[in-house]
Design goal:
Strand order of the largest sheet: 1-2-5
Shape: elongated
Oligomer: single chain
Distance between the termini: 36 Å
């Protein structure tokens, strides 16, 4: 986890933000790049595919998984370089397959929602985050207000949304 208040002196980049990654990423290329998306850290701890697999087998970071990773402190510039070198690039065919499969999956989910809730009878919907309501509206007399909450909080530091797969709070069933 990086700490912007603490700097490291890198032989290449000088004073920089320090962060952590496995030593394999520091020197390697094409090893995969795994990092946590659960916090608002611009440079989260990172490891390659093999170290990530060991960490998962161990049930998290412990003496065994940390020894395999041989964690190194690197500057944020070296971190970004290692990230670019180690991310595994998807082929155009694989990318098109992923897009097609994702579209099909989401279309099926939308059809399920339509079948279950008949939402297409409404012209529009609005989400009032402060009130916690999803409001469906359309023809006169066809209005519905449902309790709702977001599982994608906005991260000020990175100017991004933390979608449900990176948000532990989204895995909890909201109280009614």
């Amino acid at each position: 986890m990086s700490d912007e208040t603490k700097t490291v002196i890198c032989d290449v980049h000088g004073d920089s933000i320090g962060t952590y990654m496995c030593r394999h990423l520091v020197r390697g290329s094409g090893l995969g790049f795994y990092c946590s998306a659960e916090d608002d850290d611009e440079y989260p701890d990172a490891c390659g595919a093999n170290c990530n697999e060991i960490m998962e087998q161990e049930g998290g970071w412990n003496d065994t998984s940390e020894a395999a990773a041989s964690i190194a402190i690197v500057c944020h510039h070296c971190y970004e370089s290692a990230k670019l070198r180690n991310q595994i690039k998807m082929s155009e065919d694989d990318w098109q397959t992923l897009l097609s499969e994702s579209h099909r999956y989401l279309k099926e989910r939308m059809c399920d929602v339509e079948d279950q809730y008949d939402i297409l009878k409404y012209d529009r919907f609005d989400f009032d985050e402060n009130a916690g309501h999803l409001v469906f509206s359309g023809m006169v007399g066809w209005n519905s207000k449902q309790n709702a909450s977001t599982s994608a909080p906005y991260q000020q530091k990175t100017n991004t949304w933390l979608w449900s797969w990176g948000n532990d709070a989204s895995r909890k069933i909201p109280e009614r």
